[in-house]
Design goal:
Blueprint lengths: L9 H6 L1 H9 L6 E9 L4 H13 L2 E7 L5 H6 L3 H6 L3 E5 L15 H25 L4 E4 L20 H18 L3 E4 L1 H8 L1 H4 L2 H7 L8 H15 L6 E4 L10 H4 L11 H16 L5 E7 L2 H8 L13 E5 L3 H12 L6 E4 L3 H10 L14 H8 L9 H4 L1 H15 L5 H7 L3 E5 L6 H10 L12 H9 L3 E10 L2 E16 L3 H4 L3 E11 L8 H15 L4 E6 L11 H4 L3 E5 L5 E6 L12 E4 L4
Helix pairs in contact: 2-3, 3-11, 6-7, 21-22
Length: about 600
Amino acid sequence: MKELAYPFDSEYILKKSRKIKRQLLEGRTDFLLKRIAVLGGSTTHDIIRVLELFLLEQGIQPQFYESEYAQYWQDVMFDNPELVEFAPDLIYIHTSNRNITSYPAVSDSAEHIEEMLEEQYEHFRVMWEKIEDKYHCPVIQNNFEYPFYRILGNQEAVYRQGRISFLNRMNEKFYQYALDHTGFYINDINYMAASYGLDRFADPFYWHMYKYAMCMQAIPEFAYNLANIIKAVFGRNKKALVLDLDNTLWGGIVGDDGVENLEIGPETSMGQVYAEFQSYVKAQKEIGVMLNINSKNEYDNAIAGLGHPDGILRPEDFIVIKANWEPKSRNIASIADEMNILPESLVFVDDNPAEREIVEAQVKGVAVPAIGTPEQYIRVLDHAGFFEVTQLSDDDRKRNEMYKANLARKQQQQSFGDYREYLLSLEMKGTIRPFEPIYMARIAQLTNKSNQFNLTTRRYTQKDIEGFAADDTYVTRYGKLEDRFGDNGVVSVVIGKKERWEQTAADTGEGEQVLQIRLWLMSCRVLKRDMEYAMMDSMVEACRDCGIDTIIGCYYPTAKNGMVKEFYGTMGFTKIEEDEEGNSVWRFDIPQSYEKKNTVIDVLEGNDG
């Protein structure tokens, strides 16, 4: 919805929130349902009202619990029955510098200030630990914004007695806690206040009149920023940039002006603007954003432009380069297909409003920001939060190289007439083992990202994953895959639970012991590589090790996972139940003479656990 795309009209959103909500809900049923508890140190009603709009736009339908005014700490520490019954999927703690109960005085000693700092921090730390023990869900916590006045003037951040100094040190403690605890995220209200303008953001009228931690007009931007964290936690980030070239990555038209006359580099002010934007784009690779080109150009001209001596980006920084005279909407669809990802994972960046409008109309789900003038490109993309970081793994940092290797594999495939011979030529090596600490973050990330090859689409936090690994009633497996083109990292996850199956209770009185598959997913970048067969073999071996002869699997259809509707059938399961909505139950009785299905991947297995 254009009204919610950054940059947006905050006043319009505040005035028309009910109308926007109706439009977002109209005719859509494929939302991800999540329970979000908002625990406020100030008034939160309007934050929730606007936050809901941005989450609905991201495909997340929230149900909210809202604490009473300033009861954020009490609700947690004294086990408010309503909060306990609500069983949140995520807790957001909305506190601000107004919730600091004691600040240093100019006359205070350094020792007293240290005691005060530790006391204020402990107030929050004990609450966070109670949440971790009680609710086992992700937590988003505001840091502290600067006060709107400075008793010590420009020395406010220098002397320990200054409030800015005190808040900076509190924030550092919050950041260290976030680094030490998975599933704990900082909402940077301090940056938000600075970006918005501290004098406007912290207008004291709204505190004294309504107990708002910020001015009313700042709420949409604040809620948008918070929504970006929440959608990232629940796997709704974008994955890739698709960039135009002329007047987007450089000034001028390479085919008309020639490479030597492009505006890029230190010689002109606009050349510096484009160089800075290229630097910003290149930095996205470091967090796992995949880069692609979609330009109306001759291919050779595009490559020449990317070779400009003052340019930052080079052809090798991109996975797919579409420089031709095809409609850009067709190129976008082709890029998604070649990368084996959904079009809704893409962000299309083009200076031409007409091209943006065509792509937005013809390729459903692609984000098409109105990037404004070149000086605004970075601000618009950065504030839009398409690629909000919650965790950084080695797989994230290597993602561009992984997808480029996938394209090399596709080119290799074209030279083979026999598909099995092609798979053998890849010299694939797999590692399939029970969940291990080093991969817990990546496994949790996969459960929240994978949509197409995901049989149940259950989403789990890292704490959930760690819990399954420690519980001997669960069988867990992750799968890594590498070949002569490179390492794909962790690409498949299976979670099964050993339990009595009620459907046979009438025969035995207690039901037979089975392994019930709770989750089976695989990254689309290794589709048709037989990794699913290797995972099946591993699960059969695990069942044999614990004396289980039957595996039960369920398929729950979504708008995106239709490709695995008959997956269990290809694995040898028998469908035993299906309802009107397409939910199905499948059974596999392990034969004594089970023959391994994988014949092309050399697998190192670990069957303990």
